[in-house]
Amino acid sequence: AFTIPFNLAIYYESRFGHDTVAVKVPYDSIFLPLVLSLSGVFVGMLVTRCASQKVSKIVDRVGSIIAALFLIILLFWGIITNSGVLKNSTASFFLTAMLYQPVGAVVGLLLAKLLFRINMRNSTTIGCETGVQNFTLALAIAKFGLDDQRVYLDVLVNGVGGPALFYVVHCGFMIGLFRLLNRCFPDQESETAAQAAEAAARDDDHVGEANTPEEQNIGEVDNLDHEQKAKAIIAL
Question: Residue 172, SS3?
Answer without folding.
Answer: helix
